[in-house]
Structure formats: structure tokens, C-alpha cells
């Protein structure tokens, strides 16, 4: 059974000709009867399957629809056409430290973030010490998060995230943040997850990282599938695409 | 929703803690402000309604009941827009954001009513037995507020002036409910419309149970149950329809 089946995914964004966010503006707009929106297809007919235990890369230029696709898989956005079937528990890392609240202590925040990622209280209790050890923040458990430096914040978020144990992980370019050492740590963790047999969907600009981590890839351009298959082949397709129309 | 109970609990407590962070008196504000408001209103209106029995007690019960509605719905209205990252960066059922906000207000409300009990005992000289039925009214009230909260929160994502509109409506509703004046001064010809206000029905039942020591009438009971179910149903329906594009609009 594949971990993810995506069938004919399409996503349309509506770009308002003028931004209307209040009821008043909407009333005026309704009276004037202008054409309200311009349509923009961010994804068009994208279908693929990801096998269990596979690390699957999504690559493409800026604006090619990578993040939109990932957000649909994460159920944050609804597709206008097509369906997604996901087997097993999913955790999405479109951003680290979602739901962190600066006014609360690190301890409280770890419990909140962990429950957002789908962990139960007992599960968190079990790995609580590991989380703070891995983040090297044992001394700062009861400090309010607003007093954390951005590095500490990131370490805490990352450490909590990797201790949630989902079957499938959706990873956006969280690796782009943090210093070199942090990025190395992230990549090492992803490799470890892969060895544990988890499914990972990985969106990145860095072809080197994608080649290191992913067995198969999907190449998107302007919302359409250009190439799907073994990483080396897809990366080659990407490079020739860049040469043809830079 | 059940599988998210841990998250609901954590978000509710976070919401509650957050509200009283960096305040000197902490959650005592939640008790102090309705008491002070009641005191002011009592000073203003006591001569007008001098002959009314239990005016002060009725006022207090009315204010406490009203506050849950007013602060609960206003906080729920903001609950989606105030936490954009929980909408755009991760999937959780978005109802949870509204629910945890309303539940945090429920905690405040329960504390307020708890403090009200000794005050009632002093002012009335006794506590009506029917006070033990309090949960039977507070639960439909909670559902009612949650339903309205869902509706408002979903609309607020698309129409950012909902909060201004709701503020005005809440103020109007305050004076259309028998809080600072007794029900008896409402003119007879207006009565049929007046009692259609669900908040009025809730306040009447709170007073039945907490002041008069009587069981609510069948009409009032039916009224609040129907109000709760209708609000919940409409709120859920609207929210379900509107939440699909939340991530694009927040």
C-alpha cells in the first residue's frame, strides 16, 4: 500500500483585482459588479504515488507550485480538483515551532507543539528529557520563550519536532534556516528517519541535498508535472529545463 | 475531535494563561471587573428600580451570564485570525481554535459564578437549592456561544470589519436583554419580540435557578435548548463551508 496517492491535483488561486477585505468594500464591489477575480492555476493535473519508506523529493523553480503541492498534502489547502489519499499519521514541517507562544515557558510550549504534531501527553513525558537534551537547553526549561534567542528557539522547535514520530513527514525548506552545523544535523536526522522506514516528502532548492536524500523526485514547472522518476534522471531534466528557458 | 483532546486541553490552558500574563492581579481581574461593573450599574439604577425585589442580586446574575456571552463570542471571533500559523502551516481541525478560546472563557465564567455564590448567600440570606442545576443551563449556554463563535470566526477571516459590527451588535443586545432593568418594564406589545432574544431566555433561567429558587418554565427551557442547537448547527455549517479557503485568506 503506498503511503501517499495523489490523483489529478489541481489548485486554483483567485487573485482579487482589488483587495477587498471588509464587508463595506464587498458591498460596494457587489453593487458595481466588476469582475472580481483573476484566476491562476498554481497546480494542474498532478498525479503521483509515494511508496512507504521512500524519501521523495519535489523540485522546481520559484513559483512552480512546490509549496502549494506540499500544503495540499498537509491538508492546509484544499485542492479544487483531484484527491489525496494518505495512509498513516502525517506531520508537516512547513515551518518549525508552529504555535509557539512567547509568553509561555519552554516547557509549556513543548507540550503545546507536541500535541499539535499529534503526540499524546504520555508520549511527550517519555521523550521530554531527550527533547531538552538534544536541544542542549536543559537549564532553560522554565524560561519564557520570549527570552530565548532565535537560535535557542529554533533548536527547541526542531528537537520537539523530531521526537514526534509520524509515519509520514512533509518537510519544506526548513533546512534553509539555521547555520551550517544545524543544517547538517537536520540532514543526518532525515537520513535516520529514512533508515527507520518512514516516508518523507522533501521540498528543496538545493539539488545537492535532494540527490543525497531522495530516491525518487517530481519536477514541477508552472504547476505542471514535467518529470517523475529516479532522482538522477529528474535532476538532469531540471538542469536541461533551466538551460532551455532560464 | 476526540483524538485531539490533548491539543484542545493544551490550547485552552495556554489561552487562559496568556490572558493573565504580566497582569498584577492575574485572573482576579476576571472577578473584579464584573463586580465593579455591577457596582456602578447598581449605583446608577438603584433609585429607578428601588421597589424591585432583589434588584442587586438579579443584576449580578445578569452581568455574570452576560459576560460569558459577550467576552466568549468576541474572543472566539478573533480566534482564527489571531493564530495564522496554526491555519497555514499545519493541519488541525480549525474548530479547535474556536473551541479552545471558548473553553478558556468557560473557565473564567465558572470562576466568576463560583465567587458569586457567597455573594448571593450574603445578599439573599440563603442559597436556593436549584443552584445545583446550574450545569444544566451552563452547558446549553456554552454550546450556544460556541456556535455563534464558529460563525463569527469564519466570517471574520473574510470580512475584517466583523469585529466592529459585532461590537455594536453586542452593545445593542446588552440593552435588549433584561440585565440592568427588570423584565416587567418591557411594554406588553414588544414582549413577543423581546423574548425571542435567546440571551433573554438564558438570563431568565439563570435567575430562576440562582435567585428565585424556581424551576424554569417549559417555554424557557425549550427556548434555550433550541437556541443552543440552532446556533451550533448554523455555526458548524457556515464554518465547514468557509474554512476551505482559510489558509488563503488569513
Topology:
The complex is a heterodimer of chains A (246) and B (250).
Chain A: E1 4-16, H1 23-32, E2 37-50, E3 55-60, H2 66-73, E4 81-86, E5 90-93, H3 106-116, H4 121-135, H5 150-163, E6 168-171, H6 180-195, E7 199-203, H7 207-213, E8 216-221, E9 224-230, H8 231-244
Parallel strand pairs in A: 3-7, 3-8, 5-6, 6-7
Antiparallel strand pairs in A: 1-2, 1-4, 8-9
Chain B: H1 5-19, H2 28-45, H3 55-78, H4 84-88, H5 95-124, H6 134-158, H7 162-175, H8 191-194, H9 198-212, H10 218-242, H11 246-249
Helix pairs in contact in B: 1-5, 2-3, 3-5, 3-6, 3-7, 3-9, 5-6, 6-10, 9-10
The total domain count of chain B is 1
Shape of chain B: globular
Query: Given this structure, which CATH class of the largest domain in chain A is correct?
Result: Alpha Beta
Largest sheet: number of strands, sense, barrel closure of chain B: none
Record field, number of beta strands of chain A: 9
Tally of DSSP β-strands of chain B: 0
Beta-strand content estimate of chain B? under 5%
Number of helices of chain A: 8
Q: List the uncertain runs of chain B.
A: none
Largest pleated sheet of chain A = 6 strands, mixed
Strands side by side in the biggest sheet of chain A:
5-6-7-3-8-9
Structural class of chain A: alpha/beta
Question: What attributes does this structure have?
Answer:
heterodimer, A: 246 residues, alpha/beta, Rossmann fold, 6-stranded mixed β-sheet, 3-stranded antiparallel β-sheet, 8 helices, B: 250 residues, mainly alpha, 72% helix, 0% strand
How would you sum up this structure, described in words?
The complex is a heterodimer of chains A (246) and B (250). With 246 residues, chain A is of the alpha/beta class. Chain A is 39% helix and 26% strand. In chain A, the strands form 2 sheets. Chain A has a 6-stranded mixed β-sheet with strand order 5-6-7-3-8-9, with helices on both faces. A 3-stranded antiparallel β-sheet of chain A has the order 2-1-4, with helices on one face. In chain A, helix 6 links the parallel strand 6 and strand 7 (199-203). The longest helix of chain A is centred in the C-terminal third of the chain and has 16 residues, at 180-195. The radius of gyration of chain A is 20 Å and the shape is globular. Chain B is an all-alpha fold. Helix content of chain B is 72%, strand content 0%. Chain B has 11 helices and no strands. The longest helix of chain B is centred in the middle third of the chain and has 30 residues, at 95-124. Chain B is globular, with a radius of gyration of 19 Å. Chain B starts with a helix and ends with a helix. The A-B interface holds A 13-14, 21-24, 26, 71, 74-78, 90, 92, 94-95, 98-99, 101, 103-104, 108, 111-112, 115-117, 119-121 and B 6-7, 9-11, 13-14, 17-18, 21-22, 83, 85-92, 158-162, 165, 244-245, 247-248.
Amino acid at each position: 500500500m503506498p503511503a501517499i496517492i495523489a490523483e489529478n491535483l489541481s489548485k486554483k488561486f483567485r487573485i482579487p483585482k482589488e483587495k477587498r477585505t471588509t464587508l463595506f468594500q464587498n458591498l460596494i464591489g457587489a453593487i458595481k459588479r466588476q469582475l472580481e477575480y483573476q484566476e491562476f492555476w498554481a497546480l494542474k493535473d498532478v498525479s503521483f504515488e509515494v511508496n512507504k519508506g521512500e524519501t521523495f523529493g519535489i523540485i522546481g523553480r520559484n513559483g512552480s507550485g512546490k509549496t502549494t503541492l506540499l500544503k495540499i498534502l498537509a491538508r492546509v489547502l484544499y485542492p479544487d480538483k483531484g484527491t489525496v489519499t494518505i495512509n498513516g499519521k502525517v506531520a508537516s514541517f512547513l515551518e518549525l515551532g508552529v504555535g509557539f507562544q512567547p509568553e509561555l515557558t519552554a516547557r509549556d510550549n513543548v507540550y503545546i507543539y507536541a500535541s499539535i504534531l499529534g503526540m499524546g501527553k504520555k508520549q511527550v513525558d517519555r521523550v521530554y528529557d531527550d527533547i531538552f537534551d538534544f536541544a542542549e537547553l536543559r537549564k532553560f526549561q522554565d524560561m519564557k520563550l520570549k527570552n530565548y534567542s532565535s537560535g535557542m528557539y529554533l533548536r527547541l522547535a526542531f528537537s520537539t519536532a523530531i521526537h514526534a514520530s509520524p509515519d509520514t513527514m512533509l518537510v519544506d525548506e526548513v533546512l534553509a534556516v539555521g547555520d551550517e552545523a544545524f543544517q547538517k544535523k537536520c540532514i543526518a536526522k532525515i537520513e535516520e528517519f529514512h533508515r527507520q522506514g518512514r516516508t518523507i516528502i522533501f521540498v528543496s532548492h538545493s539539488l545537492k541535498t535532494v540527490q543525497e536524500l531522495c530516491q525518487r523526485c517530481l519536477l514541477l514547472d508552472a504547476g505542471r508535472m514535467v518529470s517523475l522518476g529516479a532522482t538522477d534522471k529528474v535532476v538532469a531534466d531540471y538542469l536541461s529545463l533551466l538551460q532551455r528557458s532560464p | 475531535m476526540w483524538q485531539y483532546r490533548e491539543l484542545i486541553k493544551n490550547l485552552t490552558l495556554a489561552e487562559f494563561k496568556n490572558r493573565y500574563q504580566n497582569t498584577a492581579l492575574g485572573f482576579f481581574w476576571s472577578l473584579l471587573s464584573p463586580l465593579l461593573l455591577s457596582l456602578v450599574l447598581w449605583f446608577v439604577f438603584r433609585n429607578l428600580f428601588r421597589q424591585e425585589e432583589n434588584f442587586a442580586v438579579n443584576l449580578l446574575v445578569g452581568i455574570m451570564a452576560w459576560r460569558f456571552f459577550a467576552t466568549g463570542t468576541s474572543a472566539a471571533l478573533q480566534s482564527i485570525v489571531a493564530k495564522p500559523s496554526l491555519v497555514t502551516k499545519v493541519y488541525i481541525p480549525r474548530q479547535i481554535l474556536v473551541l479552545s478560546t471558548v473553553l478558556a472563557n468557560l473557565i473564567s465564567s465558572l470562576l466568576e459564578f463560583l465567587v458569586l455564590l457567597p455573594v448571593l448567600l450574603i445578599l439573599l440570606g440563603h442559597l436556593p437549592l436549584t443552584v445545583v442545576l446550574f450545569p444544566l443551563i451552563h452547558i446549553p449556554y456554552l454550546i450556544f456561544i460556541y456556535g455563534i463563535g464558529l460563525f463569527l470566526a469564519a466570517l471574520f477571516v473574510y470580512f475584517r470589519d466583523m469585529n466592529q459590527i459585532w461590537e455594536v451588535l453586542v452593545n445593542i443586545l446588552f440593552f435588549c436583554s433584561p440585565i440592568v432593568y427588570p423584565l416587567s418594564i418591557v411594554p406588553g406589545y414588544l414582549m413577543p419580540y423581546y423574548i425571542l432574544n435567546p440571551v433573554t431566555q438564558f438570563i431568565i433561567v439563570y435567575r430562576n435557578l440562582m435567585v428565585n429558587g424556581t424551576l424554569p418554565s417549559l417555554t424557557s427551557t425549550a427556548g434555550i435548548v433550541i437556541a443552543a442547537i440552532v446556533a451550533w448547527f448554523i455555526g458548524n455549517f457556515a464554518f465547514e463551508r468557509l474554512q476551505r479557503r482559510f489558509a488563503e485568506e488569513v
